[in-house]
Amino acid sequence: MIVVWKGWGLLVVVITALIVVLTTVLFDKLGWSVAYGAALGMMFSAAAIWQAGNKFNSPLKNRVLLDQQTGAEVILKPDHSLFFIKMQYWAFIAGAIGLVMLVNLLAGRSS
């Protein structure tokens, strides 16, 4: 039997928001375009989400317990996900959004 341990999936939103805000503020302070800061912030947040997701959802954190009455093994697995998508896979979504933003900026199209 496998029991899933729910966890920190909402951390995806927090990581993305913090990094995007930090990069846009930094770009604004340096006098650079804030839109580029947001695009690069999305790409940086993708890297951070990937690292955090791989750490939190590591198979090394699985626990095997033994039910004394039935002798059945119970496996506790971490599942840090947001909307049924594991945390580390949100990195691809954030990176793609950042890449689309950057391509639009470089092509001269602004939203």
Description:
Helices cover 54% and strands 18% of the residues. It has 3 helices and 5 strands; from the N terminus they run βααββββα. The strands form 2 sheets. It has a 3-stranded mixed β-sheet with strand order 1-3-2, with no helix packed on it. A two-stranded antiparallel ribbon has the order 4-5. The chain is elongated. This is Membrane protein. Keywords: Membrane, Transmembrane, Transmembrane helix.
**Spatial extent as radius of gyration:** 19 Å
Instruction: Provide mean pLDDT, rounded.
Output: 83
The sequence of SSEs as H and E is EHHEEEEH
Taken from the alpha-carbon principal axes, the silhouette is elongated
Break the fold down into its secondary structure elements and pairings.
Layout: E1 2-6, H1 11-30, H2 34-56, E2 63-66, E3 73-79, E4 81-82, E5 85-86, H3 90-106
Parallel strand pairs: 1-3
Antiparallel strand pairs: 2-3, 4-5
